[in-house]
């Protein structure tokens, strides 16, 4: 347990926040600090063919220890953290034998992690939790996944009696800004299929995710003296507000669950002369996904028509771009890869929770690049904020799942009945 804690903490203490406004890969140079640390660690535990390319993608190999043909499988995690909340100067707190009560993250600022609000905490009574100090995120998304993969590879190397085929591991930058798989070399990786270790609670096993798009709408306005603005001023901020009000009121993240899609306003910045609205569009259904994107264009056209005579040109310009698609289309033809993961969980005493991801992982894009890639739990909760935490026992269970998948895949019938 202490080995896992030490490894995880060594990762989260490195600031790897990505930057959506950067055009480089990785989007921030500081991500390479952890990437290069991982390269040296993979070499030190005995992995072979350890590489890092010019874009910060780390790959390594654990060679097969069986003499029959076994599919090459892979495990993937990302090392960046979200730009939504600071990941600098992370100061993890260790809560041994959690008793189910409130956890004071920061007494000075009265920041409390409470099971009265975060009810999932009660599932981990008696376990060791790693939390934030209330001023940063933790980074379990996805440094817990990295910890699990490295620890599992180290365990397999130290226990050669556990038979396995060739295993490839990959660590990626910029997943949190939707670019984690953009420059991932699937051919170089050379796996038949892979798993991202990027889910939340113990047992999660996911092969469905949102179809995702981003939208940027720029609104133009006209500024004149407010005392003489009658019939002349056009306040772009008010037009943007009108646009938002034309979106379905109950189709927002806080009002949806399961397979329900949504529109989510992520950024609004403006003045009278110009306002920029950014939002994301999510839906599991490809048909509804198209309809949501069309609604953005329809509202834009409606606004432009309303102001055509007064403004003289389009007052609103919408840019909608796809980000990733539902991996279900690529995984369904090879469902045995999900079955193996579920069987691995069953064999170590974890009940598989097969459900759709209300988000995305690198596996979404990788599946469409020719590497089918379901998602497995990494164990953390409350990602992207100061209330993030991870039970150490969950990291251990995810590590055990990786080891068991490797073992099952090395059997001639893939370990399935």
Question: What does this protein structure show overall?
Answer:
There is one protein chain. With 417 residues, the chain is an alpha+beta fold. The protein has 10 helices and 17 strands. The chain has an 8-stranded mixed β-sheet with strand order 1-2-8-3-9-16-10-15. Strand 5 and strand 6 (111-113) form a beta hairpin. Helix 3 packs across helix 10 (392-409). The chain is globular and about 85 Å long. The two termini are 33 Å apart.
Fold blueprint:
Elements: H1 2-12, H2 31-45, E1 48-52, E2 58-62, E3 73-78, E4 93-95, E5 103-106, E6 111-113, E7 129-131, H3 140-158, E8 167-172, H4 186-189, E9 193-199, E10 204-208, E11 211-220, H5 236-245, E12 262-270, E13 274-283, H6 286-311, E14 316-324, H7 328-331, H8 336-347, E15 353-356, H9 362-368, E16 375-377, E17 389-391, H10 392-409
Parallel strand pairs: 3-8, 3-9, 9-16, 10-15
Antiparallel strand pairs: 1-2, 2-8, 4-7, 5-6, 7-17, 10-16, 11-13, 11-14, 12-13
Helix pairs in contact: 1-3, 3-10, 8-10
